[in-house]
Amino acid sequence: MNKTSFGLPIKARRIIAYVVLVLISVMCLIWFYLLFVNSSRSNASVSSGVAFLPSNQFGTNIKNVMNDSSVPLLKGLLNSFIVAALNATFSVYFSTMTAYAIHVYDFKGKQAIFTFILMIMMIPTQVTVLGFLKWIDTLRELNKSIVSIFSGMGGFYTVLRSFAKGGNYADYVWLILPGIAAPVTFYYLKQYMESALPLSLVEAARIDGSSEIRTFNEISLPLMRPAIAVQAIFAFVASWNNYFVPSHILIDSPKTVPILLAMLRSADYQNFDMGKIYMSIFIAIFPVIVVYLILSKNIVGGIAVGSVKG
Amino acid sequence: MAANDKKSTNNKRAVNYNKWGYIFLIPFFVAFILYNLIPLGMTVYYSFFEKYFDAGTGTWSSVQFVGFSNYIKLFYDGYEFDPRIFKYLLNTIIMWVLGFIPQIVVSLVLAQWFSDNRLKIRGSRFFKTVIYLPNLIMASAFAMLFSALFDKTGPISSLLFDKLHWINAALDFTKSVGLARFLVAFMNFLMWFGNTTILLMAGIMGIDESLYEAAEVDGANSIQRFTRITLPLLKPILIYVVITSLIGGIQMYDVPQILTNGSGDPVTKTTTLIMYLNQILVSKNYGVGGALSVILFLITGGLSLVVYNFMYSKKSKEKS
C-alpha cells in the first residue's frame, strides 16, 4: 500500500490550501461586512437594493437606536455582560476544582462519580427548564434570607442588587450560579489536566507544607491557564448567546441582548426602519468582535501552547 | 475511561489527603442538585399532573394527577393522531445533519492544514481568528442578520433577482422549505466549524511528530498520513465533537426561532423540538410541557449514549 504514493507535490497542496482558506474567510466575513454597510444606510437606501460601500447615515442610525426606549439596547449589553462574565468565572473556577478532585485524589466512588458526570454531560438545560422555572417559583415563596443562604448567594446577592437601580436583578442569580456545575467544561479541563498537571508537583507542594486549597489555587490553576482561558471564552460565549432559558426566566427582569433582538424581530421588515434594525444587530455584536480581536492572540496562542506541552 | 485505580491506597498519608477529593467536589454537586437534579425531578413530576393556564377564563386549572395522559396528548389530541412531535424531530435532525457534515469535513481538513509542518501555512493565526469569529456572534443576532439579508425585500434577493437576474423570482425563505432549512443549517455550520477546527487542531498537535516522520520515511503520502495516523489518534476528540454537536443540534432553537420569528415557516418545516417546547411553555401548559421535556430528555440521553457506547466499544475492541 505504501508504494502507491500518489500525493500532490507540496507547492500544489499549498496553493489549494490558500485558495480554500481565502474563500472560507470571505464566507465568514462577508455577512459582517454587509451588516456594517447596511447599518450605515438610511431606510430608503436599504430598501432600494444591495450596496457594497458604506453610506453616511451611521450616526443617525445610532441615534435612532439609542432613542428607542422600548428596546433599551445599551442597558441590555451591560446586563448580558454581567451574566456572561460572572457565569464564566464561576464555571471555569469550579470546573477546574472538580477536575482537580478527580485527577489528584484517590477516593471511594471516584470512578463512579467521573462516569456520572460524563453521563450528565449529555443533558441539555432546555429539557429541565420547565422544572427549573417551577423550582424558582418554589424558592421565591421561601423567606428571602433562607433563599440566600440556601443557594449560596450571600453577599453576592447584595452586589447584584446594587446594579438593580432600574429593575429586579435578583433573577440573574438563576443564570449565573448554574455555571458551577458545567460538565462539558469539567471534561475538557480534566483531559487537559492529565497532561499538564503531574501529581509529583502536588506532592512536592505538600512536602513544602502547602495546604491543599493553596496548592490548588496557586500551583494547579496557573498551570491550567491556557485551558482555563479557552474554556472561559467558551463559557462566556455560551452564556452571552443564551436566549432560550433567559427568555423564560427574565420575564419581569431587565432583559439581555438576545431577548431584545427577538423583540425587534417581530417588526414587519417592509414597514420598519431597516437602517435601525441593522444598527441594532451591529451594536449587539460589535463589542464582542472588538474584545475578541484583542484577545484572539491569547486564545489561539493559549491553545497552541497547551497542546505542545501535552 | 482512565480507571486510575492507582497503587498507594494503603498509604496512610494518601488516605488523609484523599478526603479533599470529596471536599473539592462539594460545589459541583451542590450546584448540580440545586440547578439540575431538582429541576429534572420537578419536570418529571409535572409531566404526570394536569396544570395549565386557561387563557379564556384567565385562571389556572386545578392540579391533579393524570398518569400518562399528558404523554398521550402529545401524540393523540383526543380525536386523531397528532404527528407534530415526529415532524419537528425530523426537521431538527435534517437541519443538524445538513450543517454537521460540512462542519466536520471542513474542520478536519483545516485542522490538518494548520498543523502540517510541511505545508507551513502563513497567516494561519489570521485565518484561525476569522473562522472562529462567527462562533462568538450571538446566534440570535446572526439569525436576525440573515433574516434581514435574505428577506424577500432584502439585499441578497435584490442582487440575485433584480441586478444579476440569476433567479426568476424574489428569494423568499418563508415560502421555500429548501432555502429555509439550508439557511438554518448554513448558519449552524458557519458558527461551529471554527470552534471544531480549533478543538481538532489542538488534538492533532498533540500527536507525536515522529509518527509522521516515520510514515514519511515509509513513503506515506499526505492522505495516508491523515487517514492512518491523524484520524485514529484523533478519535477521543472526535467523540467529543460529535457528542457536543449532537447535543447542540437537538437544542437547536435560537437560529430557526429568530429567523422565522417563531413561526417555523414555511408551514412549520423549520420548527424544531425546542421551538415546540417553547410554544407549550409560553401557553403555560405545564403538564404537556413536562411530558415533552421528559421525552426530549430521553431522546438526548439515548442518542448520546448510542454515540458514546459506539465510540468507546470500538476503541476497546482495538485495544484488545
Summarize the structure.
Chain A is mainly alpha-helical and 310 residues long.
What does this 3D model show about the protein?
The complex is a heterodimer of chains A (310) and B (320). Chain A is built from 16 helices and no strands. By secondary structure, chain A is mainly alpha-helical. In chain A, helix 3 (58-66) crosses helix 16 (274-309), helix 4 (73-104) crosses helix 10 (183-196) and helix 13 runs antiparallel to helix 16 (274-309). Chain B is an all-alpha fold. Helix content of chain B is 70%, strand content 2%. In chain B, strands 1-4 form a two-stranded antiparallel ribbon. Chain B starts with 11 loop residues before the first helix and ends with a helix. The chains are: A mainly alpha (310), B mainly alpha (320). The interface between A and B is large, with 116 and 119 residues.
Please name the defining characteristics of this protein.
heterodimer, A: 310 residues, mainly alpha, MetI-like fold, 71% helix, 0% strand, disordered C terminus, B: MetI-like fold, two-stranded antiparallel sheet, globular, disordered N terminus
Task: Please give the most extensive interface between any two protein chains, plus how many residues each contributes.
Answer: A-B, 116 and 119 residues
Averaged pLDDT of chain A, please? 82
Please state the second-level CATH architecture of chain B.
Answer: Orthogonal Bundle
Q: Please state the CA-atom Rg of chain B, rounded to the nearest Å.
A: 25 Å
**Which CATH first-tier class of chain B would you pick?**
Mainly Alpha
CATH superfamily of the largest domain in chain A: MetI-like
Kindly report how far apart the N and C termini of chain B lie. 15 Å
CATH architecture descriptor text of the largest domain in chain A: Orthogonal Bundle
Strand content of chain B: under 5%
Q: Any idea what the shape of chain B is?
A: globular
**How many domains comprise the coordinates of chain A?**
2
